[in-house]
Write a structure and sequence with these properties.
Elements lengths: L3 E11 L7 E9 L14 H9 L1 H4 L4 E8 L2 E2 L5
Antiparallel strand pairs: 1-2, 1-3, 3-4
């Protein structure tokens, strides 16, 4: 059994009318870990966080591929 609370596998995302912003993201966040997301402005940090909470694509729309799991559950169709 994995100790990951968040896992992204082969994740891609593009906002509506835009090119792909996040490409082939593979990330695992372990329970109890401290994780920082860093990068330049426009790199996709906020979009990545929105994906982990299910806000994209549910609220913002756009194109989405790959898998985002929180506590072992795929959040694709969650509200």
């Amino acid at each position: 059994m994995s100790d990951s609370v968040i896992r992204l596998s082969g994740f891609y995302y593009a906002y509506p009318q835009n090119d792909v912003l996040l490409k082939e993201i593979n990330l695992s966040v372990a329970k109890g870990s401290f994780t920082a997301i860093a990068g330049p402005s426009g790199a996709g940090k906020t979009t990545l966080c929105r994906a982990m909470t299910g806000i994209v694509p549910t609220y913002y729309g756009g194109r989405y591929a790959g898998k985002v799991e929180v506590l072992g559950e795929d959040i694709r169709d969650k509200k």
